Amino acid sequence: MNTQPKASHFIDGDYVEDTAGELIEVIYPATGAVIATLHAATPAILEQALASAQRAQKEWAAWSPTERGRVLRRAAQIMRERNHDLSVLETYDTGKPYQETSVVDATSGADSLEYFGGLIASVTGEHIPLGEDFVYTRREPLGVCVGIGAWNYPTQIACWKGAPALACGNAMIFKPSETTPLCALKVAEILHEAGAPAGVYNVVQGYGAVGASLITDARVDKVSLTGSVPTGRKVYAAAADGVRHVTMELGGKSPLVIFDDADLENAVSGAILGNFYSSGQVCSNGTRVFVQKGIKDAFLKRLAERLADVKMGDPQDPEVNFGPMVSERQRDIVEGFIAKGQEEGATLVTGGQRVDGDGFFLQPTVFADVTDDMTIATDEIFGPVMSVLDFETEEEALRRANDTAFGLAAGVFTSDLTRAHRMAAGFEAGTCYINTYNDAPVEAPFGGSKLSGVGRENSKAAIEHYSQIKGVYVRMGDLEAPF
Ligand code: NDP
């Protein structure tokens, strides 16, 4: 596959280039080879993107919601038809195995386009009677939205932000992470092929500085970030200057609580899905696995057996189920955490080693006997490192699960129905799972509480974050005034 895009940016319905921008080398994480070279957006490119988005938004917002929805649904269909090629590209961009990308990335992006494309025509205002007078509400777009993405789900993030934004009549300027800049360009291409007017969905490349300069432009009305908490703080603060709307999808250190009465095989599956999918580079991962003492030995034994079935290798091989880390830098960071875990006295059950070769592979790693204060239990690692912590009672598990500044996700495995719902109600997290982990269907809200974020993506809730309500007061009779 030719992984070099026609040009670095997609603006006003077409690819554009400005080679004066800083060089971005795209590296295939499985081999370390450079697979594309791009350039960061220059001020001239950003100006083009902002001007075209502002102009196109007015035209787009004047379309009926049904017409806008039709474009999104057509784009969803094109994405599904091209799922194979898009998945191969996503695998080159991120290093995630094709076995995952072929069922998760473009498909989840298409779900989002289809869902919001179908929903938007039924999003209406309300009529509020006030005797003879009345108020009606109009749900209006915000204007120009900036999306800034992390590197773990480039296609999905480009769609999860783009689909509700466009459905509501906004235009979007999306800046992917410079680590994975390829896939969002395809999303832009497809949306325009499906009939979106030029300028409605633009992609500009760049490092953090590009995102930072977009956020503070007076033409921007909303910023939606998927990234780490430190970046979130900066972006939130910068957006506050212009009192802009924000959605913050940030990091986590989520708990996964496994009770003695859980189905062992399902609990192990949940822990695997919540720690090792995408080589552990998932924001909602349940990396603090609290295991009740009675099931701990059986859990660790079965987990080690199942991890023996991991198949590492060329991520484009459909048989491979575990890919490299996204970058050398990310692997180094995760290795630092593994060393810290050993230094601080956790028991290394399995893994912990990098794999020889040019790619950025790291073995799936499990630590047991982890205590709440160890660095591997407090900090987001964003790699394939599971920490297993022991507990005895439900009350203790919930208290310790919530004892974190993050609040993205939480999960519980138990066969006790009422306990499962008690735990879900008690978790301080935006997304909770009972006897499963890490599902993210477009129909359900996704997002964090506490430091993990503000706002929700997906579901009807996302409409609230990409539109605003205007109230229109209508007086039917004469108007009295004091003088
Ligand atoms: P970063 O926070 O490093 O970067 C996120 C994006 O923000 C990148 O595009 C980055 O550009 C950009 N950026 C960095 N600094 C600024 C700035 N000052 N102003 C504007 N934009 C800026 O996150 P990662 O890409 O490393 O992704 C990993 C993080 O993302 C983890 O913490 C993870 O939990 C979180 N995440 C959250 C998800 C959620 O839905 N809650 C989902 C997926 C990931 P550049 O890369 O060029 O620096």
Automatic annotation (TrEMBL):
Keyword DNA-binding included in the entry's annotation: no
EC number: 1.2.1.8
InterPro entries: Ald_DH/histidinol_DH, Ald_DH_C, Ald_DH_CS_CYS, Ald_DH_CS_GLU, Ald_DH_N, Aldehyde_DH_dom, BADH
Active site (UniProt): E249
Keyword list, A-Z: Metal-binding, NAD, Oxidation, Oxidoreductase, Potassium
Entry annotated with the keyword Oxidoreductase: yes
Record domain Aldehyde dehydrogenase: where: 16-471
One Gene Ontology MF term: betaine-aldehyde dehydrogenase (NAD+) activity
Name of one Pfam family that matches: Aldedh
Highest rank taxon of the organism: Bacteria
PANTHER family in alphabetical order: ALDEHYDE DEHYDROGENASE-RELATED (PTHR11699)
Family: Belongs to the aldehyde dehydrogenase family.
Record protein name field: Betaine-aldehyde dehydrogenase
Native organism: Yoonia phaeophyticola
Lineage: Bacteria, Pseudomonadati, Pseudomonadota, Alphaproteobacteria, Rhodobacterales
Gene field: betB
